[in-house]
Each structure stands twice: as structure tokens, then as C-alpha cells.
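We emphasize that the prediction below concerns an isolated chain of 267 residues; any contacts that depend on oligomerization or on bound cofactors are therefore not represented. The input was used exactly as deposited, without trimming of termini.
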Amino acid sequence: MKRLLLTVLALLAFRATVAAEPLPRDLEGVGVDEQLGSTIDLTIPFVDETGRAVTLADYVRGDVPVLLTLNYFGCPLLCGLQLNALNDALKELEWAPGQNFRVVTVSFDPDEGPTLASQKRASHLEELGRGDVDWHFLTGTAESIAALTSAVGYTYRYIETQDEFAHPAAMMLVSPTGVLTRYLYGLTYTARDLRLALVEAGEGRVGTAVDHFVLSCYVYDASAGSYVRDAMLFMRLGGAVTVVALGLFLFTLWRREARSQPTPDPV
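Result of the prediction step, given as a C-alpha cell string:
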């Protein structure tokens, strides 16, 4: 029960608005300080699930956006719930990783290595059921992990008495050029939100014309943790439709009035 309470509290710690009562000492400094619009250093080195030395530039290559998750593979609860929720959303998404986007999961535990990363990747790809898709699991040194988590504003804390990490559940959308464009939070994600976030992060290179039109009708509501309809846009569209309809009505009346007038006799 204590472990469950710790992870649930850690999930809530990212909220910008905190309660008046102080957080438990174990959760101090745990959260997300969004760095929207900043560019990640793509030269940060990591090791992939095969043991190959890589950098973030191997995944953020200028072609498609990247969905970045920060977890640790030995997490007893929260990370598994988050990645399972991502898996559920990916199953409903028309695109698979490798089609218009990539997924990169980075462990923030420097004691974890490629063997565990490979096992986690195999497990999640089997659950996804789409074959060997473009979803990679990376591990790295404490220095590399600190550089990445600092760049994206992700903070966590090691709880020595529990031998666990307190951390938030957050995913980052990274543009093809390495710019942070959106943060998604929680333990439930929808295929619609993923698609809109990927279209937004794609810098015009991802999605159909319909996707871009739909995105223009939605805004991201941080309090709701989801994309919602842009009320002001719909009000403006409604106003425009009303003006056009009124204009057509007046034009029709004018035409009827003109036709009802007698034709003057020729001189």
C-alpha cells in the first residue's frame, strides 16, 4: 500500500498548481517544468537495446517527430501502467511507430543496461502486435540522463528506503529538428490526442490536409490534459456563417423585389 501511495502521489506531483499543504519529503522536487519551444541537444550519448552506442540524433533525424518517454525498466508500477496506456493508444492509432513518427523510451536509472532494455522492448512490441516497429529503449550514464532530463524539465527522486524512484508520468513530443512541442500526462492517452500531437510536432510534414484542418480546430488544454475544440474559433466560424446567411437572405429579398417591379414601357 505504501508503494502504491508513493507512485500515485508522484503522478500528481507534476501539476503546476499544488495543494496548500506541503508535499511529503520524498516527493519534493518531483515534477515537470515544461520547456516548450526549446531544442534538445541531439549529441547526448546513450546505448540502445542491442548494446549499440547511439545519440538522440539517430532518432531525431529531421524527417518525422519523436514521441519521447522517460521511465525506468525496473519500475514496479507507474512506468508499466504508463507504457501500457501508450500501447493501448498506439493500437488504436492508424499509424504504427515508423510511419510518420518514432517512439523512444529512455531509462533514467543509470544502473540499467541493454539487456533489460531489450527485454522491455520485446515485451511491449509483443503487446502492441505490429511487428518490429520503430520503438527503441535506451539506457545511459548518469551524465547523459541528467543532460536529457534537465533539457526537458523532467525531475525525479530516488527513494533509498524503497529502492525506487518517485517520478511523474509524462511524455514529450519532439519535432523532426529536436524542438519540444508538447507534453502529455497521465495514465490514459487517446489515439486522437496522439495523432493531433504528432501532427502538431511534425512541422507540416506529418498528416493529411484533413489532419491539419482538424488540428486548427483544436487547442491543447493543459488542465484537461487533452486537445479540446477551440471555442473562439467556432464562435468566429459561427459568426461568419451568420453573416453569409444574412447576406444571402437579403440578396434573395432584393431579387424578389426587383422582379416584382413593373417593367417601364418603352418610349
